[in-house]
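Note to self: user wants both folds in one dump. Writing first protein now.
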Amino acid sequence: MALARIRRGESGMNYWPGFVDALSTLILSIIFLLSVFVVVQFYLQQEVQGKDTALQHLNGQIALLSKLLSMEKTSKADLENQLGGLKSSLAAAQNDRDRYKGLYEGAAAAQMTAESKLNELSGQLEGEKENSSKAFGQIDLLNQQVAALREQLAALGTALDVSEKKTKDSEERISELGQRLNVALAQHVQELSSYRSDFFGKLREVLGNRPDIRIVGDRFVLQSEIFFDTGRADLKPEGRTELDKVAAAIVELESQIPSEIPWILRVDGHTDVRPIIGQFKSNWDLSAERAISVVQYLVGKGVKPSRLVAAGFGEFQPIDSGTTEDAYRRNRRIEFKLTER
């Protein structure tokens, strides 16, 4: 090595061997420090583990002490409850003692009062004996009055029997009158049905055999298109012409039906189910206004107002439940119904 150095020295200054020595020394120092650090860390870890074990032991003792303290508190609460119960029992016993003492004193006073009352009642008994003789005399008088009342009750019973017989006779007469009234009403109904048939026949005759005019049960049905435009309640000229014929038939009917038969002609307005668009709020308003227009026109043609009634049913009484245009047309109608008032 010295020979190499001499040779290298011959060529110039060489720093590399010194650098290698210094680096070796530094590495040895770092290794020594790491060894010391590892040893220190090992002892510290052992120390920390020992402290953790001691801490766990202390925590266990604390938990045990807490449990014992809780048990002591529970025992103390139980003792306090028992003490409260004993105090309540003692207070109740004292109250019972005072009450019994008061009852005893009250009983003694009541005994004295009873003895005094007994003496007083003995004196009253003597007086009552004297009053008893007077009472017997009054009893005899009452017996006589009871006998007189019995005689009056017998007379009232006889009068009641007579009254019941009269009542029964009256009920029989009322029943007979009711039957006669029902017969008369039935006759009026039959007469009205006969006039209704004649009236509908007359209407059919004057209005002609048209497909948009028909009789349904006890009603004479005309389509609304005869009298009104869609969504309107103003009578069309051709509708007025048809109503002139109806008015003439009604006026003739008024002269034929006897005055004792209470009848009216009801004019009903009906629409289809489709929503209304226009001046009216609903189909109900439109149907009512159309019926009123017909009634007012008939009155203007000489029909008595007392014989007419206007009613609007809107879309709520259809005669055809379909959804076709023909079904809607059938439901838009004006009906005339001759009925009793």
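First done. Writing the second protein, which came from a different request thread.
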Amino acid sequence: MKKFLFWFLAVVITLVSAVYQRMTGPTYPVRGKATVEGATVNFKLPRSAESTADAVIALAFPAPTEGYLEYKRYNSDDPWTREPLVRKDADLVGFLPKQPAAGKLAYKVHVMTGGKDVLIGGEAPHIIRFKDSVPLWLIIVHVLVMFSGMLASTAAGLAALDKKRNPRHFALWAAALIFVGGFILGPLVQKFAFGVLWTGFPLGMDLTDNKTLISFLLWIVALVAGRKGKPARAAVLVASVVTLVIYLIPHSLFGSELKYTKTN
């Protein structure tokens, strides 16, 4: 495989998987279109917010549209609270009360149009999770390191399929970058955001932590199989494919969650 094609495939596969993971994650905003007062309007409903301020729900719906929010603490016995949306310039705006780090609210958005009460974004409640502030530099470095680790993993898998290449060099980079990004930078991000360093096995069921652990262990197996410079193509290919598959699992699934029944 020519060098250009090799890296082109590695970059495309990595980018597609990263975008897919991001867009299917439980904190990615709910986006869609709604017909309000005869006009089709795009909307975006947040599913992540900072714990320092109320979360803002802003909808660019034309006058004289009115509406209201319903919300309650997620997985609690609270009754639903109803708050009207208020008009600010061209937008209908509502506010969800801020929660402690890892606290979640379930909410619904209603608008009155054509004499009907319409739920925006579907019948099911939307879930928004609150987090503490994380330094921007840490987020950037964490994302870059994890992306580089995924790129090295993909490159290792492609090299394992190419008999003219030894995948061990890429395997070493994949293991090192996944370790730094997943076991040093990742826990630091989580500590800032939710006050805990690790919520995967054996402490919890956070899939982001657990899939990082599985991926890293597979790369250790591949490196052991490739000791003394052996290509260990089968082990590297398995580690690369499994890493790709588990990184397609939505980010932050089963992540940190404040148990309200334990804090009341």
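Dump finished. Worth passing along: The domain at 37-131 is CATH 2.60.40.10 (Immunoglobulin-like).
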